[in-house]
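the two lines:
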Amino acid sequence: MAAKRVKARGAKARGPQPAATRPVQLRLLAHARSGDKGNTANVGLIALERVYYPLLVREVSAARVARHFRGMVSGVDRFELPNIHALNFLLHDALDGGGTLSLKTDAQGKVYSTALLRMEIDVPVGLARTLTRK
Amino acid sequence: MSAVNGRTVRIAAGQGFWGDWLEAPVRQVRGGPIDYLMMDYLAEVTMSILQKQKSRDPAAGYARDFVPLMERILPDVVERGIKITSNAGGVNPRGCAEAVLAVARKLRLPRPLRVGLVAGDDVLERLDDLIARGHSLSDMETGRPLSDIRDLVLSANAYLGMAPIVEALRGGADVVVTGRVTDTGLTLGPIFHEFGWSPEDWDKVAAGTVAGHIIECGAQASGGNLLKGWRSVRGLADPGFPIVEAAADGSFVVTKHPGTGGVVSVASVSEQLVYEMGDPRSYITPDGVADFTSIQLRQAGRDRVRVTGVRGGPRTPMLKVSIAYFWGYKAVGTLVYAWPEAYDKAKAADRVLRRRLADLGLEFDQILTEFVGVDATHGRLSGAPSPDLPEVQLRVGVRARERAPVERFTREIAPLVLTGPPSVTGFAGGRPAVEEIVAYWPALIDRREIEPYVRVDILDA
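prediction for all of em together
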C-alpha cells in the first residue's frame, strides 16, 4: 500500500510544476553492498522499493557521488542495473592501495556501501514524510 | 542416486573463502539432497601465501583445512553419490589430491574414490620465457610492465575456467581438486557436465556464471551480511549456505536446506549480485562474458529465488593472470583512550607518536591514523563525534619498503602508555607484529599460451 502511494507522489513530482522537496538520507531509499577490486571500491546501491529506482537514477549521479566522497576517492563511474533496481558505483583510489597494501580498517571496502547511504538526496515532501515515518 | 535429479542439478556452496564456517560443508552434505558441493578457497593473494609455504615445505602449498574437512564428509559424500569441486589445490594441487586420496584410503570407503587433478595454471616457472617472447604482463590497473618487478614475484597463476573441471567429471572424478580455477568455474563445470551443453552456448555460460557468482561467497547470498531488514534475519547461528538448482533451460533457483537459518530472498541475492561488481554488462570470466543487466529475479516460494533471462557473449581471447610480489612491510598499532575527552586524548597521542617517528628520522611510504569509534570506516563523512564518547581507539598503521622503520614503529606504541596523554589502556596484546606485504599484480595473457599446458589427471585411491 505504501509503495502505491509513493508512486503517485513520485509521478506528481515529475510534472511541470516543481514539487516541494526535502532531503532524506539514501539509507531510507536503498540498501547496499560493497567490495573491492585492487584499489577500487565498488558500491552496489539497490532500491528498497522498485518505485524508488527512478529517483536514484536521477539524483544519485556519478558527479554527486564524487562530491560526496571528495578527498576520499579520485573518481567515480556509475552503471545502471534497472533489472534489479540497482546502481553500481566504482570508487577509484578509495582503499589506500587496496588489498594487502592498505593500512585502513576497511582495507577491502566492505563497509564503503554504508558511507554512501549517508548521502542525502531531495525527494518530494510526501515521500519524505512516508519514509521518515517508517 | 543419479546426479541429475529429475531435470535439475543441485550445487551447494560449502566454503565462500578460506577461513569460512567449518560446519557449512558438513551441513550441506547431510541437510538434504545435493548433487555437487563446491568449495572456493582462493582469494587474490592466497596463492602467494601458499607459494611461500611451499617454498619452505615442498609438500605444502594447498589449503590444508580441506583435507580434515574431507575426512569428515567423505563417508557421507560417497554414500550419497555427491561430487565435489574445489580450488583448494592452490599452488600444489597434486599434493592436495594425494592428501585427499590418503584420507580416502584411511577411511576404508565402500568404494574407491576417484580424484580429478587439474594443473597447468601455474606460470611462475614460465615467466621469463613469456616476457622474453614479448608478453609484457602489464599491471591491469597501472599499466606498468612486469619486468619492473620481475625479481620480486612470488607466484603467478592464470585463471582457468570450467573446461578442465568438465573433463575431470567426464573422467569419473568424485572430487575435483584444482589450482587457480575461477570461483565461478567450480559451479559452471558441474552444470555443463550434467547437461552436456556446448561451452560456446554463451547464454548458458552466462547463466552458470551468474549462478556461480551468487553462491561463491557462501552465506553472503543467504542472509549473512545482509543489510536490508537485517534485524529480521533469523537463525544466523546456523545459516543455510546457498544451493543452486540448475535447470536444463539455463534458469536456476537459489535456495538452502529446510530448517536452516538465514534467508534466501530477492534482496539477499541482489546484494550478492552487486558484490565486487565492475561493469555489469561485462562480467568477464575465462568461460564467457555475462551481462548482469539481463538477470531477472523472482521470489518463488519461501527461501527460493528463481533466476531467469541471463544473457552473455563469447569468451575473450585473453586470460587473467594473478601475480603476487613482495612489496615491503607494514604494522598497525592500537591504543584505547577513555572518557572524558577520549577523542582529544587519542588525537594528542597521535601527534606525540608522529613527532617521535619524525625525530627518529624514520621514513615511511605511508602513515595512516584512524580513530575507531569516530572516523575509521566513514572518514570525514562521519561528522562531528559526540563530546561524551566513552572511549576511542587510536589506530595507527605504517608501511615502508624497508623492515627497519616498521620494526622501530612497533616499539613506539607501548611507551605512549606512560609517556603520553592519560586514561589509556588496551595494550594487552603486546607489541604490534611486523607483517610482510605481498601485493597483487593482475595481468592478461593470450589464452593460447596457457590452454595447451592445462592437464587433467584421474587418480584412484
